[in-house]
Design brief:
Aspartate Aminotransferase, domain 2, alpha/beta, homodimer, 42% helix, globular, 13 strands, Aspartate Aminotransferase, domain 1, disordered N terminus, 3-stranded antiparallel β-sheet
Chain lengths: 453, 453
């Protein structure tokens, strides 16, 4: 009984069906924690048999990264015909095949400023990687400071706040620069804002925070209006504190009635705080992960400074690819329509994962997980101390998951419990097999843990 | 007489025809310096009349950057059909549309390692900009050091050697990072090696040098074998000193019997000094300046370190564009053949510029210039103190040149004499007009100077 109550109290971590069934008294409660040692040993042994069957199959499946699948990649193939008309001219008069226009062609600014919710003079069009844009922004802060502040490299220590679980590649960027990262717990409405407000208030060395505000990576949480407003109104001791607002999944919905978070730059402007945030986005999961277009938005003052630095680091990004995108989509509305095609391919995969977890684990009271309404991941919390063991068991049987701990700074999950499941890439039959294996591994690890107690 | 002797003594700065004519006594020597004030005033006045005629035409021509022209861009259009076969797979099994393979697909490594003369495990394939690769390498040195050395950001002062005249964008990268730049005079065989060896010998803060070894920007000088060998054997006090060997024009010849410089990495390996150099190249002037492929090569140790950092700054560069290039060219030999098509388009433009200079200026003994055998520029040295005036006169009459001083660190040409002429972009009729204007402006500025003396 305690299990379902725990789950219920966790907000987004609710297994509705399991709860209803439980309340209706229709499913047998076989909570692992209520088993005797003998029952546990037998349970473990049964699952080890199933595990060994899997192992002998020589599987080779990869669920480690949020990669779109082949069907998704095929959705944008017509983009490659964009230049069949022989027209390479941007509306600004630049032949996009040639040099020039380092901050992006105006028609790309129009299209993507709508996507990330900024004005056309508040955006830079980068290359194919928003991570690279983030790296650049952090690097500029380290080498030049921000809007006249001292370069961060001149501090003995610079700190970043890191909502956890979060995106491993964010953490690696700040780790590269020697930043001290502070874990901030996620809640169903976003990161713990009380803690954030407290931490930034007096410490001038706290310089930034990593956020994935819509369908957070990996929890799939959408920041509440209150959370966005509190971020927008943040008054850190450091004038060069920046919120790195990675809106990677801003149009990546998994339902027909999507949630939208508040526009943080608009909110920040309302309270005269528009320099507080850098916004990022990309078409990596709209067109091609390897050949999309990445963008960065922010106040004109922030963007103008970074444009100046950008023009030193590169002559121009790939403007042919920018124009390809503009020609392919035409309007932002068309981009949104395009995303529905992605949804129809990947929503069934998310459903499959959630169904397997609910059917196989909910009745046993093992683990908690999210049922996201968008984004690319399902966040699974195993019993404490079991994540590494589960990932390792899966790996030995041929299924690669995101490394346990990856969702935390320095790769250290203090509870060794979070596993990021990425269901989009494998074909659904493979995914089904992988999830069958996954739940078996969870059962084994959970039983091992209880037996060792 | 002194003029021709000066010219003769300058090695690459020889006007052969003028010299022969002079020796044959066939051309009247109207050396400006031999004119009386009256003759000068009349000469100036005549040219001012011609200038005003030009000015009234409302020209609008751009010779400021080394941009390929439309005909050159058209040479690579078939590259856009590379995926008509529907095959997106790299030989390493990666679907190039998707994430992964941050250091470049193996088939691109094969193709481009031949271009820059390294092994396939000594290369990284970047995005569309070799400048961005150089920026990244400098930035990594600043934030992380090189192979265990202290990060450059921890020094009060870091110095770079800058052969002059040189490439403005190189200088801007080091200026961005606050590097102190030291001018190194160019000679007909490359930068002054005596001076370089002396400067690096004892000063641990001298960390690097910018080089364009083949068809140097803007002089078009090819470093001699001795120069390359001395670079390869350089033993700087700083273990993290690097030669930034920007081989931008390695296959960009303007004659059928091209010069080839020695392979610096090979030479460095011979003397156990392979970590001394970072090599760069790109297809910006092979396929599309805005959508080419940039590469960086070096010792395995250097490259392995940078691969590690690269994987933090980006998930992957645009591998579709890498495969596009591989499919279009197939072999390095085909790339070299392709460059002959470029040559046939731009060599007449270089000839036109040199002819105009020789016909109009050589007999007057004004200025010195190069007749490059490759690359993208003609370097013109006006009489001291005249470069800014010439560029400004041209600009007022509608012809934009590279800013005077741009070829020197901080934009400061101590003699105010060097002007970089970029003949590739304008149609040949426009170029002809622009050069007619240019020589008039040179004549006016030279006369003004002599009159003021």
């Amino acid at each position: 009984m305690s299990v379902c109550c725990d789950i219920l109290l966790c907000g987004d971590f609710v297994h509705i069906t399991a709860l209803i069934n439980y309340l209706k008294g229709e499913i047998p409660i076989m909570n692992l924690s209520q088993m005797t040692k003998e029952e546990l040993a037998s349970f473990k042994s049964e699952n080890e048999k199933l595990y060994n069957d899997f192992r002998s199959q020589g599987l080779c499946l990869n669920m480690s990264r949020g990669n779109p699948c082949s069907e998704q990649l095929a959705l944008s193939l017509d983009m490659l015909k964009a230049f069949d008309d022989g027209n390479f001219m941007s509306e600004c008069g630049n032949d996009v095949r040639n040099y020039g226009v380092p901050d992006g062609i105006p028609e790309a600014k129009k299209l993507f400023s709508e996507m990330i919710g900024v004005n056309t003079d508040e955006i830079i069009i980068f290359g194919n990687s928003s991570l690279n844009a983030m790296f650049f922004a952090v690097q500029c802060a380290f080498n030049k400071g921000i809007l006249g502040s001292k370069p961060w490299s001149e501090y003995d220590k610079v700190k970043f706040l890191c909502p956890v679980p979060g995106y491993d590649r964010h953490f690696k960027v700040t780790q590269f620069f020697g930043v001290e990262m502070i874990n901030i717990p996620m809640t169903p409405t976003g990161p713990d804002m009380d803690m954030i407000e407290e931490l930034v208030k007096n410490d001038e060395t706290v310089k930034g925070i990593w956020c994935v505000p819509q369908y957070s990576n990996p929890d799939g949480i959408c920041y509440s209006d209150e959370t966005v407003k509190r971020f927008a109104a943040l008054k850190p001791a450091a004038k060069d504190f920046r919120i790195f607002w990675d809106n990677a999944y801003c149009i990546h919905h998994l339902t027909d009635s999507p949630k939208y978070i508040l526009n943080i730059l608009d909110e920040a402007k309302k309270v005269g705080n528009e320099n507080i945030v850098y916004v990022f986005g990309s078409t990596s999961k709209v067109t091609f992960p390897g050949a999309g277009v990445a963008v960065m938005g922010g106040s004109k003052e922030n963007i103008d400074e970074l444009k100046k630095y950008l023009g030193i680091s590169i002559i121009s990004h790939d403007k042919m690819n920018q124009l390809r995108h503009v020609k392919f989509f035409g309007t932002f509305k068309n981009m949104q329509e395009h995303m529905k095609k992605h949804m129809s391919i990947i929503a069934p995969k998310f459903n499959l994962v959630c169904d397997k977890l609910e059917k196989e684990l909910a009745p046993l009271g093992i683990g908690q997980w999210t049922t996201p309404k968008g984004g690319y991941f399902i966040s699974f919390n195993a019993p404490n101390g079991c994540a590494k063991r589960i990932v390792s068991l899966c790996s030995e049987a041929g299924v690669t998951l995101t490394g346990a701990g990856a969702t935390f700074p320095y790769g250290i999950d203090p509870d060794d419990k979070n596993i990021r499941l990425a269901p989009t890439y494998p074909p659904i039959e493979d995914l089904s097999k992988a999830m069958d294996l996954f739940v078996i591994c969870v059962k084994i690890a959970a039983a091992e843990k209880l037996l060792a107690e």
